[in-house]
Amino acid sequence: MIRVGIVGLGYWGPNLVRCFSEFDNCKVTAVCDQSRDQLLRIKSRYPGVIPVENFSTLLDRDLVDAVVIATPTATHFELASKALAHDLHVFVEKPLSKSTAECEKLVALAAERNRVLFVGHVFLHSAPVQKLRELILAGELGNLTYISSRRLNLGPVRKDVSALYDLAPHDISMMLYLLGQQPEKVTCTGLAHLNPAIHDVCNLTMHFKGNKMGMIHVSWLDPHKERLLTVVGDKKMAVYDDLAQEKIKVYDKGIDTPPPSSDFAEFQISYRYGGSFCPWVQEKEPLKAECADFIRCICEGDIPHTDGVNGYQVTAVLEAAHVSLLSGGHPVQLQPMRLLGETTNDKDAAAQTKAVIK
Q1: pLDDT tens, residue by residue, 274-301
Q2: For 285, phi and psi rounded to 5 degrees?
Q3: So where are the chain's domains?
């Protein structure tokens, strides 16, 4: 029986308490938050849990075997580091951290302690995204050209991170998963309207090998809620609408180009307008599937799909996008992850982290 502690009972934490409480192979034994009201609220719903206001107290009292961190992004590194140092398995909500330097340290520490480091990229556990990946691998869409997404709503406005760090990790993680690679460079522009230090609207473009591209538009200033991802291939196209009853629709549409010719008059593009279909998707709650996978990896000693390296890859895109955002949209090349043991100079790491958080 894996004893689980949930840290952070704000917007997302109570959902995590609910999911982990429904499994037979684990038990939520403790919850931690600085708000006594939140602790009492959870305690009233789950009488068996022990409420704790201080994270160090949670670690020192031997109450848990694993912690789930659902706190503000700026606290992820410190809390996850302390938990791993206490030989606990760690689940961290997205993003893993605000800098790649911190992600590398967490990956190294998890490997050193032989603990599971799991990142909450919840959409990689959703049935529609897995179905999209299945269609791509089967060649149903042909050679991919680009993926675009729109994640829009009116609020909730965050005070600790921009819309880039709050919303884009979902779409970044999906695009990296579907394309099966990291981008070579990124560009990002945005608008800081409500607070000059925090961007409310961002447009991120990722350039991949093979002349492929990913485009992400995120905003918490939009009147209409959208959760839309479009995958364009040279054979067919697919649209994933997370708000629709039928999540995925595949379109047999495209543009056919003639063989190369020196005669411009012979160059005629033809448009293909075929039918469409909605593939059957076995629905499941992504968050519950994600939580179950965390417990499974602990019990079986398996490496999660959304492990620390996966968390690093998403953070690397966010970090480069943030630099591009502050530079007015100049392209930023992504650097490869260092191997375990190749630590960053402390001064360089501190400077890098400071630049990202600024």
Answers
A1: 789 999 998 899 999 999 999 999 999 9
A2: -75, 115
A3: 2-121+286-305, 124-277
